[in-house]
């Protein structure tokens, strides 16, 4: 989760907990918090510092910061990019798609997962 925050009340913290409660491992990325722990996970300064496979890069940053995040996501071989509500960067999304990443933009997993579960008639399993 790029842009993870330790400030109470931030959406990134709520979404991180939501995903963890559903069994997902969420690795926080925030250069200002690197070396600390957030919701039980070590915080990394950038995506390249993560030493395990990343399935999805979830972005809680302004749209103008997404270009460099896409570069990092491509470099680590992430298969998917998720831009949170209000984060829209069509050019970066197109570059990510051209590199083979699946892209979700201007949506929130804490909204989409429950919607998909309602439509499926049950929980989505990790």
From TrEMBL:
**What are the residue boundaries of the CoA-binding domain, all occurrences included?**
1-87
Question: InterPro entries, from UniProt?
Answer: CoA-bd, NAD(P)-bd_dom_sf
What top-level branch of life does the organism fall under?
Answer: Bacteria
Pfam families according to UniProt: CoA_binding_2 (PF13380)
Instruction: Tell me the SUPFAM superfamilies matching this sequence.
Output: NAD(P)-binding Rossmann-fold domains
Q: Where are the transmembrane segments?
A: none
Name of this chain's protein: CoA-binding protein
